[in-house]
Amino acid sequence: MKVQLRAYLYEKQKKGDIRRMRQEGKIPAILYGHRDKSKRLYVNEKEFKKVLDSLRKEAVTINLMIGEKKYECLLKAIQQNPLNGKLLHIDFQHISKKEKIKATIPIHLVGESPGVKKGGLLDQHLHEVIVRCLPDEMPSHIDVDISNLDLGKTIHLRDIKSPNIDFEMSLDTTVVSILAPRVEKVAPKPAAEVAAPAEPGKEAEEKAEKEIKEKKEEKPKEEIKPAKG
How far apart are CA 188 and CA 203, in angstroms? Predict the structure, then answer.
């Protein structure tokens, strides 16, 4: 994908120029590469942020317009204020259509994995990949089809077929895999404690004490005297 951005040449004249430029909504930049002399530039902050939004989604080649001349380039570096995220400086690299360039390309997963439908966990290890190719052959992103990826299966970088593109990473690098669902083992509940039987001697003693108590509580029977003749 290509986008167009207008840039303007400038020459630093006195102290404070850069700060004033930023206050006016301009971002200082530099253009270098392809045997050209480096050029001091600035771009409109609002326009550049639109380009930046595209870059976050896919790889972008920028047609940098300086006056009537067009420079095909890549965004090589952005300097930001670490406290507030304010854009401070941009590096653009001028490229040649006849020379291979290195770029970072995002990876997009496409399709539905049968392993996920079975309860598996999709684990994407690689979200972007470094490639080398000619500018006109550089893709905006790389699609990885997971429609045949079942439980326990993995797609490596070597499994991706991208003609005219060289990967600048190990081909054994894992791109995505489907992990088997975890089965949580339920710990067995502790068996209910069984009351220990009373000791035989103690049980007999308690029984005897109970009988004695019962006898004491009984009323004495009246004595029957024989009748006088």
Answer: 35
Q: Cβ distance 54 to 1 under 8 Å?
A: yes
In terms of pTM, does the model score above 0.90?
no
| Tokens matching residue 35 | 């045997």
Dihedral angle at the C-alpha atoms of 169, 174, 57, 120, nearest 10 degrees? 180
For 35, the 3-state DSSP assignment is coil
Q: What are phi and psi of 196, to 5 degrees?
A: -70, 135
The answer to whether 10 and 42 have CB atoms below 8 angstroms apart is: yes
Structure-token match 């986008």, residue found: 3
Mean pLDDT value of segment 149-173 = 93
Q: Residue with structure tokens 């190719």?
A: 133
Using DSSP bridges, classify how beta strands 174-179 and 121-124 pair: parallel, antiparallel or unpaired. antiparallel
> Which helix or strand (DSSP H or E) is residue 193 part of?
none
Average pLDDT over residues 34-60: 85
Q: Which amino acid is at 215?
A: K
- State how far the Cα of 190 lies from the Cα of 168, in Å rounded to an integer: 57
DSSP character at residue 111: S
Paired with 62 in beta bridges are: 3, 73
Per-residue pLDDT tens over the stretch 122-146: 999 999 999 999 988 888 889 999 9
Domains in the chain, ordered, with CATH? Answer: 2-95 (2.40.240.10), 103-179 (2.170.120.20)
CB 43 within 8 A of CB 29: yes
- The fraction of the chain above a pLDDT of 70, given in percent, is 79
Helix or strand holding residue 117 (H, E): helix 114-117
